[in-house]
Amino acid sequence: MISFAFTDEQEAYRAELARYARTRLLPAYRRRAESTEFSWEAHKELAALGVLGIGLPEEYGGAGADSHDPVTLGLVTETLAYGDVNVAAAPVQSGLVAAQLAEGGSREACERYIPELVAGDAVSGIAVTEPGSGSDAAGMRTVAVPVAGGWSLTGEKIAITHAMCASTMLVYARHPGSTRSRGISCFLLPMDATGVTRGHMPGMGCLPLGWGSIAMDGVFVPEENLVGEEGRGFASAMHHFEFSRSALGLLCLGAARASLDEAARYAQQREAFGQKIAEFQGVSFPLAEHATYLEAARWLCYRALWARQVGQPHTDLAAMSKWWAPQVALDAIQAAMKIHGNLGYSCEFPIQQRFRDVMAYLVADGTSEIQKRIIARAVLAKTVN
Hints:
Helix content is 49%, strand content 15%.
């Protein structure tokens, strides 16, 4: 019998985080979203709630490696995004960076860097995209030249979350002479290393996430900062993206749920032609339609995370979650804006801000076109005799 129920522990945690999202995050969402400053106060509060330690070893301050649970991380992300879609990106980033470091980092690197990430004292980033290789991540040109005691990194990375506030960065670079996915390794780069420069790339949304670029000119990285197996970093990155793609889908859906709830409340208050506008099918039917789409996309994301948790193949499910859920969320937010009329477009209300923040995820972590290529490959493979 298939069960769609969360555990009692997950439900209790969700309820705690839902209260926090509504009472602490939501009231100040617009104020935080309008600033390019990272929300350290909220980030530290997430640490106190245990969000940043899920699935990480206890010896480094985490909840325990045995508690590694993609479904719980997805539930946390969705719940927090109801209050602030930008603050809610933290568990996704932790799943990408801290988990990868815990799995493949040296003892020295783990002891030095994971505790501060779990405590919320620092944030890290992941640097894959380059000016000439966005969707084609295997076409990266940043090189890691072996030198005495480590490697020398040279190249440029762009579109990096936390570029402006991270103290460390997971940088993917290829060994000289290698091509495509072969020869790519992952390195933990301290951002204060000699030869590193940052550049800010603010967009139309997600301002507190500090998107930007980094340039490396012969930056030395010691041997103990290699993360994972040398020359096999690309496969590791893709494996972790299969978590983040589903989690980011839930991130967008959590934000959309908040907008749809706001639209439903407004529709029951606003009157036109002598009655509440919720009584008009032109208002109530879009609410019904988008509630259905959100629910369907939500369970697709959780199906992908469940498959990851039990060790089943989920590459195509993660890709489905990544291209469809953000689009469903964006459509729902747009419908909520229209129900509010001119107020939905006003900067005095949070709906327009969510629209701009969620739109970023149509591109981040792989465009919808790339996700559809992944899905189509899986579909075609199943039909081969």
